[in-house]
Specification:
This protein is α+β, with helices and mostly antiparallel strands and about 350 residues long. It contains nine helices and 15 strands. The chain has a single domain, classed as Endonuclease/exonuclease/phosphatase (Deoxyribonuclease I, Chain A, 4-Layer Sandwich), CATH 3.60.10.10. It has a six-stranded mixed sheet, with helices on one face. It has a five-stranded mixed sheet with strand order 5-8-9-10-13.
Length: about 350
């Protein structure tokens, strides 16, 4: 495919990616067939054919062994996430041609893993006990509900993931790994509302987002205590210093998931998160680009992460954000640069790691 970078040698390190593909679901019919036509996609002034082609260019250029797809095609009585993704992979002759999906989302945005079965095996392997209908404390299974005191008033509330994290047991190059794919709750209110409503909903959404991250962190602690090699990757809709409501709660959801308040041996590692934590102002990496209507300009944010356990961090992995303007390798391939802008409002993040 044109626009792709030269393939890496077959002795390459394992490459894993996280990629939020905006409105991927709108590019398929109920049978999982591609809508490769000139009708407009859900992305502004971009046709469905152009968005599909752009996604394929990006995935081909990345040449990842496994991609955590965020905002994947819908799963329901009429639609299949796996069928749609594997149909897409066949159509564009991708090496990542096998898909795995976990618990269905309440939205039209699923978390799924698209991978090369010649390099990786992956199965859905959820942990935690199912909670009763009223929820349970601690870290119940992600498709059930958590009870937590969100506003510190002594009364617990019921929390559910609208997009349950995808827990995978993976084997790559003979090494077992645990992967958790994440799409945490968005904190941004939507629709017309008063300033007072905006503030109230913003605070409520942040509380729920933090509760999701605390729930996820408890699962991470269980993996680290068991000695698992763990990778947590996806869109956290959050980052250090991202909005003014962080001051109200003292930290971001990303800091909770990283475990920075805990023992060093329980910290997860992501260099982009570390840069953001150290540089609350000034230069910081970004993974998403949004058009802000009132300001009539683009706003960029660091929302997408690949966090690894200490044993994997000790292998000196290499992280990369495939940013169309900030990555010289991408800038040198105009077709890839343009494809990244056409495919999604997020840019993929990759991790290269030698497991040998």
């Amino acid at each position: 495919m044109t626009g792709a970078m030269p393939p890496r040698p077959r002795t390459r390190p394992l490459r894993l990616a996280s990629y939020n593909i905006e409105w991927f679901n709108a590019l398929f019919n109920d049978r999982g067939r591609l809508l490769e036509d000139q009708e407009l996609s859900a992305r502004y002034q971009i046709t469905r054919a152009d968005q599909l082609g752009a996604i394929a260019i990006v995935l081909t250029a990345m040449d990842a062994d496994g991609v955590m797809i965020v905002e994947g095609p819908d799963q329901g009585s009429k639609r299949s996430t796996i069928k749609a993704l594997e149909s897409f992979a066949r159509h564009f002759e991708l090496r990542t041609r096998k898909a795995v999906h976990g618990f269905a989302s309440d939205t039209e945005q699923e978390i799924a893993f698209l991978y090369d079965p010649d390099r990786i095996t992956a199965t859905h392997a959820p942990l935690g006990d199912p909670a009763p209908s009223a929820g349970a404390p601690g870290a119940p299974r992600f498709d059930t509900s958590l009870r937590a005191d969100l506003d510190m008033d002594g009364v617990t509330e019921q929390i559910r993931f609208s997009k349950p994290p995808l827990e995978l047991a993976v084997t790559a190059d003979g090494k077992p790994l645990r992967l958790i794919g994440v799409h945490a709750k968005s904190k941004a209110p939507h629709g017309q509302m008063s300033q007072a409503q905006f503030i109230r909903i913003s605070i409520e959404n942040r509380r729920k987002q933090l509760a999701e991250c605390q729930w996820l962190r408890r699962r991470i602690d269980a993996h680290l205590e068991a000695g698992d090699s763990l990778i947590v990757l996806g869109d956290f809709n959050d980052g250090p210093g991202l909005d003014e409501y962080e001051k109200l709660f003292g930290h971001s959801g990303v800091e909770i998931v990283l475990g920075l308040d805990g023992l060093p041996e329980h910290h997860l590692h992501d260099p982009h998160a570390s840069m953001a934590l150290c540089q609350r102002t000034g230069i910081a990496p970004t993974t998403a680009r949004f058009w802000m209507v009132p300001q009539k300009r683009y706003f960029e944010a660091l929302l997408d992460f690949i966090m690894v356990s200490p044993d994997l961090a000790a292998r000196n992995p290499d992280w990369r954000i495939w940013h169309p303007f900030n990555d010289p390798g991408v800038m040198a391939v105009p077709e890839l640069r343009d494809a990244l802008l056409t495919a999604s409002d997020h840019f993929p993040v990759t991790l290269d790691i030698d497991l040998g």
